[in-house]
Amino acid sequence: MVAVNTQQPFSVTLRVWRQAGPAQPGKFVEYAAKDLSPNMSFLEMLDVVNDELTVKGEEPIAFAHDCREGICGTCSCTINGKPHGPGKGIATCQTYMRSFKDGDTIFVEPFRARAFPVVKDLITDRTAFDTITQAGGFITARAGSAPDANALPIPKGDADLAMDAAQCIGCGACVAACKNASAMLFVSAKVGHLGLLPQGQAERDRRVLAMVNTMDTLGFGSCTNQYECSAACPKLISHDFIARMNRDYLKATFRDAFKPAPAGGGGGA
Amino acid sequence: MATLDSKIPSGPLADKWRKHKTEIKLVNPANKRKYEVIVVGAGLAGASAAATLADLGYKVKCFVFHDSPRRAHSIAAQGGINAAKNYQNDGDSVHRLFYDTLKGGDYRAREANVHRLAEVSVNIIDQCVAQGVPFAREYGGLLANRSFGGAQVSRTFYARGQTGQQLLLGAYSALSRMVGAGAVDLHTNSEMLDLVVVDGQAKGVIIRDLVTGEITRHSADAVILATGGYGNVFNHSTSARGSNTTAIWRAYKRGACMANPCYTQIHPTCIPVSGDYQSKLTLMSESLRNDGRIWAPRKTGDNRAPAEIPEGDRDYYLERLYPSFGNLAPRDIASRAAKRVCDEGRGVGPTGLGVYLDFADAIHRLGEPAVRERYGNLFDIYHEITAESAYKSPMRIYPAVHYTMGGLWVDYNLMSNVPGLFVLGEANFSDHGANRLGASALMQGLADGYFVIPYTVGDYLAGQKPGSRPSVDAPEFKQAEVNVRGMTTRFISNKGQQPVSYFHKKLGKIMWEHCGMARTKAGLEAALQKIPALRDEFNASVNVPGSGDTLNQSLEQAGRVADFIELGELMCRDALTREESCGGHFREEYQHPDGECKRDDEKFGHVAAWEFQGEGKAPVRNTEPLNYEFTKMSVRNYK
Amino acid sequence: MNLVGNLFGSSIGRKILMAVTGLILIGFVIGHLVGNLQVFSHPDKLNGYAHFLRSLGPALWIARIGLLVAVVIHIWAATVLTLESKRARGGEPYGVKTWIQATLSSRYMRWTGVVVLAFLLYHLAHFTLGVVQSDTFKETEALRHYKMTADYHVLGFTVVRAGSEVLDVHRMVLLGFQPLVVAIFYIIAVGLLSLHLLHGMDSLFQTLGWRNARWARSLRTFVMLACAAYFIGSAAIPGAVLTGLLKPVPVTPSVAAHP
Question: pLDDT tens-digit profile of B349-408?
Fold first, then answer.
């Protein structure tokens, strides 16, 4: 009954990056997106364009998406030069067409970085993030060996701060936004989350050294403290965690260099 | 006809699991590495299972269709996870959690399974905290709890509104550790397209690499499916767009029984559909109903803005129909009431499918800052999606499909009727009966993966000779691969007129109309006419551009929608034959005068497990009686 | 030992080296400026100060080598990190890329760094080595003999006595800034150096892990004030010469000829 949407249907021009595969060259292709509702999400707009392409027998635009509520971290377009589009603290899937005006030209590109090669069109391969996590982004806790959950009280402030860092959705916007394609915000969020908790202390030095080393090996750039990452982050994770990780890395490096090494030796009785 | 032996251990309820664990067979440590286990899916259940089995020493291969295991849809769960810790000293116990869950499921779950779930719930919290899951805490440093629907105690642990995310990332970190250690062979962008059954036992899968299009065969000693629910059969649901039924559906076609497929949970407070383009529905926490009042215009076709509708022309229908519970009526009742109002033509919003959730009274009573403090983040989400301020005008809400209780049939060991095929999490049917309580899905996924499957898979493997898994050159593998390739070729070469989404939308409409919140014999019979017709139309005119040798999202969707169409038919069949109302399955013919579900324990106090009989043939309905040894099936009453 | 490997081999290690060497260089440029501001005082001050520094002998060389090492490491790390970052960005540039919030000074660090290096080389050639503008340099006979009119003290110790004959650095500076182009170049260069410091001073706290949101604003304010003060102080010397506030006193033959 009540028509809340007072805006008329509108149209925009898309300039979308099309690339058939990792080895093929890509280019921008222009598409008209017509009869849009301002209440459409950006991805729903792409759905409509894709259906039209399909009906015409053309290959639809490949784009990554899944939960469409800003938590899975799958969606990954750079819209008009900003990862996840014009909004602050939201992902592409939470970007609505009402952010655009009739007649706008919208550039849609993949997240770009050498460590995130383009798979197809707007989809990039972000396996590098998994590889970094596999190097040390965990606390070793075998199922069945855990003590009672309340055996170890954790100050609320630490737990809340750890949660701030733990919110990372692993989308890669930080890398895409950074002029150096640095993964520091992603890595530092995990290092910060686990390093803030008492459970994470046993592996703290090992973790930061291993994760940073893997990050470097995978070809991410370095941090020049411009904080584009945290500004582009859909969860607005603070670059304070980067400072924290730098400190952790330095401490771990010195401890690693100067602490006495155990003699080691055999298995015992 | 499949034999459905639930293998529930004998003995007192509280001792069954303990006793079972001491009696089942073990695999010795040196032999574990000789067994290979395939895990499909890496949500809460899959990731925790893969990590735990690898930690035990089994060789594990894990397949996920996402680009990373961290993207599984468990990540989107908001509210929390239940555990009978009784940290609040408010009288909680394993037995209470068991009882609440069983009753919440409208007495359609197995007693023994539910009790085990309640028992291991306490270990889950310990495990997650040890992994570094940052649960909410009190100033004293101890874990915080909140209350949730269907319970009178505070037993829900949470991490802000992102509990599912944090639990999944915990399981993902455990899995990552094992991948880093070389103990799990992780395959991302890999979709399971067929199950391979050799000599009646599940011994492998056929996988399509979604990036390269390569189709590969993988053999194993056991196969574990943890591939989630099938809510997307309705097209519009709170599930992720990629969530699908393909893995369990293809297993069904290889002989695994599908249990209670019609049990669907519909959540009453979601943001309504705004147009035909809509791809996804977003949940608004049920907690809003504590202070919001639900209403619709009294007259049909009342086009006035909500503020212009005087008090006398408003119908606060929940308060009118359920005076004792009012706006806090149970989920299914609230959902069905909203549907009835909209069916009468009194719905609001551009589509007419919505009702108001009004905070004007609360703002008047408490002041806007207090309302903002309680619900600010939810109001923000609402504003982001609709561009409307719920402080100024009422929210529009409508029910949406949220969870599917049905799934592949499994015994107490979580093994399906096909030996060697285990099913975990939302993909199985086991613990929630006909309705799932809030904060229980996360509990079940992790219970299955961390604490049940590590024991029960060993019991099965101990009976298999090490190294006896078949070669991938076996004829069964070849046949399965040919089957998969045939499907791909058929889609690609079809060259019809309509995109896949056209059929998915059509299916969703049929399912929502006839197999949604309220079902009738006539409606279901109509659906059983429409769905096969849709299937024929799909086969004749679906258009899948591109090729099968590269990343092709249309092709992926085509396979999934084809399976949804078939599953939809089975759901309607199941709903039609279950001539009673229970939990999420509401047949209008079977209700109490007050609109409550009218169960028929005599005739339907059983699990319906459907068995595939071949293309074009009617499936067989097997039943597993629910023998309640310790609890009395009674009328669910929350008044 | 992984210490050297981690510091020189990892991205964070190199950033830490940048920060530490940057800190050393900031210390140097501030000290250098404070010393040079004595130009606004009696010529005795600057000349006595210069004479004292040169009299330090080996200590001066240690400091010079230390600074040279700091500069080399700073530039080496910057170069390596820049090249790696360029590589990390990948082959295909964005069709459209917007800045979200990075500060202006941070966006031009590499350019300001290069200009500052050019300035540094000119400055050394000018005042330390005397290979440019050599007519105003110490080899000029007229500048060799300045007689201190009072004692020059450092930390309460008399380091240069009244009556000693020292190099007339004060005059050298004023003569050196006589050409308009040189004075303007110096002002622009210290401007860019201040801009470099504006990001660098803030940034080193982040790199060393001493910065967080609680006091980031205070740090930023402090850094802005410090950089502004540095710029004003540094630009004041050529500025004063340019505007005629400071004028070299004409050399009287009697002073020059006196033994």
Answer: 988 899 999 999 999 999 999 888 778 878 888 998 998 999 999 999 999 999 999 999
Chain A hits for B277, Cβ within 8 Å: 37, 40, 44-45, 47-48
Q: Which of residues 155-174 of A touch C (CB under 8 A)?
A: none
CATH assignment at residue B523: 1.20.58.100
- How high is the pLDDT of residue C259? 37
Domain ranges of chain C: 3-89+106-257
Confirm whether A250 is domain-assigned: yes
Residue A147 lies in a domain: no
Mean pLDDT of chain C: 90
User: pLDDT at position A268, please?
Assistant: 56
A80-95 pLDDT, tens digit per residue, is 999 999 999 999 999 9
In a domain, B367, yes or no: yes
Q: Is residue A48 domain-shared with residue A165, that is, in the same domain?
A: no
Q: Which residue of C has its CA nearest to A15?
A: C95
In-domain check, residue B248: no
Contacting residues of A for B179, CB less than 8 Å apart: 130, 134
- Mind giving me the DSSP string for B78-116? -S-EE----TT-SS--HHHHHHHHHHHTTT-S-HHHHHH
Say if residue A4's pLDDT is above 60.
no
Predicted pLDDT of residue A269: 52
Name the 3-class secondary structure at B293: strand
Domain coverage including residue B514: 475-605
- Exposure string of B519-557, with b = 16+ CB inside 10 Å and e = fewer, is beeebbeebbebbeebbebbeeebbbbbebebbbbbbbb
Task: Write down the pTM of the prediction.
Answer: 0.95
Q: Give the mean pLDDT of B522-546.
A: 97
Tell me the CATH number at B383. 3.90.700.10
Count of CB contacts below 8 A, A vs C? Answer: 155
For residue B638, what pLDDT is reported? 63
Q: Count the neighbouring beta carbons within 10 Å of the beta carbon of residue C76.
A: 15
Q: With an 8 Å Cβ cutoff, are A224 and C100 in contact?
A: no
Q: Do chains A and B touch (3 or more CB pairs under 8 A)?
A: yes
Structural domains of chain A, count: 2
Q: Which of B400, B423, B453 finishes a domain?
A: B400
Q: Which chains touch B (3 or more CB pairs under 8 A)?
A: A
Say yes or no to pLDDT of C175 above 90: no
Minimum-distance CB partner of C209 among A109, A226, A243: A243
Which CATH number is A194's domain given?
Answer: 1.10.1060.10
Name the A residues in 223-252 with CB < 8 Å from any C CB: 223-228, 231-232, 238-240, 242-250
B331 is catalytic: yes
What DSSP line would sit under A89-154, residue for residue?
A: S--GGG-BGGGS-TT-EEEEE----TTS-EEETTEE--HHHHHHHHHH-S----TT-PPPTTSS--
Q: A81 CB near a chain C CB, below 8 Å?
A: yes
Tell me whether residues C208 and A250 touch, CB distance under 8 A: yes
- Chains in contact with chain A (at least 3 beta-carbon pairs closer than 8 A): B, C
* Whether residues A135 and A77 fall in one domain: no
Q: Does domain C3-89+106-257 have CATH number 3.30.460?
A: no
Which amino acid does the sequence have at B146? R
| DSSP assignment of B295-322 | EEESSTT--S-GGGS-GGGEE-HHHHH-
Q: Which helix (H) or strand (E) holds B569?
A: helix B553-577
Catalytic, out of B155, B331, B396, B519: B331
Is there a contact between C3 and A253 if contact means CB atoms under 8 Å apart? yes
What is the extent of the structural domain holding A135? 127-141+154-258
Name all chains with 3 or more CB-CB pairs below 8 Å to chain C: A
CB of A113 less than 8 A from some CB of C: yes
Distance in Å, alpha carbon of B75 to nearest chain A alpha carbon: 6
